[in-house]
Amino acid sequence: MKLSVRDAAGLLDVSEKTIYRWIQSKGLPAYRMNDQYRFNRSELLEWATSQRINVSPSIVGEPESASVILPSIVDALRRGGIHYRVHGEGRDATLRSVVELLPLPTEVDRGFLLSVLLAREALGSTALGDGIAIPHVRNPIVLHVEEPLISLCFLDEAVDFHALDGKPVRVLFTIVTPTVRAHLHLLSRLAFLLRDERFHAALMGEASRDVLLGLAREAESRIGGMAAGGKAA
User: Fold this and answer.
1) Dist CA 139 CA 42 (whole Å)
2) CA gap 37, 17 in Å, rounded
3) Which of 28, 49, 90, 212 has its CA 20 to 30 A from that of 42?
4) Alpha carbons 136 and 114: distance in angstroms, whole number
5) Has 185 been annotated as catalytic?
6) Which of 136, 144, 183, 185 is labelled catalytic?
């Protein structure tokens, strides 16, 4: 979520002047976008906890009802799109290309999204190994995105994402969601999907969109004991 200085001050129960001072003197995590500071709710909470600073109870609020129907991974992939031969020289340039491909509303600040994706990578690689990475932010950010999406990108050349297995990445799943609940739901389903042998093989072979979506639908239908995510059309 793109929190302003005023928002951060309210959540931390301090003045805006204190927020600016903490950015400079205490390492308060902030992103400089268009000459203004922006903050991530989860990072503010983690930082405040480490500094033993009292926070407003609203900082942990989740703007979502538990009755909201969670998305199917197939629907999320359809919204995000499957893209082939995505180019980028190096990790940062590749993520920039991916962000430009995301089907986001015009009011979304793509520069801000890129900055938080890069900040997440700086904390630790999102590469899973076997040439696959799942770029995402530490906590979902509301970017005027009403429905969650997953964008699958096949790179034209493998890129070093500092994966633990040392393998360069060629397959990227980028997740953008408006809420924590939807984010965790899609991450768990994507983890299941990547363990499916047929889907994994199709992924490694850069199969067609129809084949990948069909296998994803079949795999998702076998998931038991998880919250219903709506049926893929």
Assistant:
1) 6
2) 13
3) 90
4) 10
5) no
6) 136
Count of CA atoms in the C-beta half-sphere (13 A) of 117: 27
Q: What is the C-alpha separation between 226 and 16, in angstroms, rounded?
A: 43
- How buried is residue 142: exposed, middle or buried, by Cβ count under 10 Å (0-12/13-18/19+)? middle
Domains and CATH numbers, the chain: 5-60 (1.10.1660), 73-221 (3.40.930.10)
The model's pLDDT over 84-105, given as tens digits with 9 standing for 90+, comes to 999 988 999 999 999 999 998 8
Residues 33, 144: Cα–Cα separation, whole Å: 17
φ and ψ at residue 159, rounded to 5 degrees = -125, 140
Q: What is the pLDDT of residues 109-153, one digit of tens each?
A: 888 889 889 988 887 788 888 999 989 876 665 456 778 899 999
Burial class (CB in 10 A: 0-12, 13-18, 19+), 27: exposed
Burial, 23: exposed, middle or buried (Cβ in 10 Å; 0-12, 13-18, 19+)? middle
40's tokens: 């991530």
Query: DSSP assignment, residue 133?
Result: E
Distance separating alpha carbons of residues 55 and 227, to the nearest angstrom:
32
Token pair belonging to 171: 């397959």
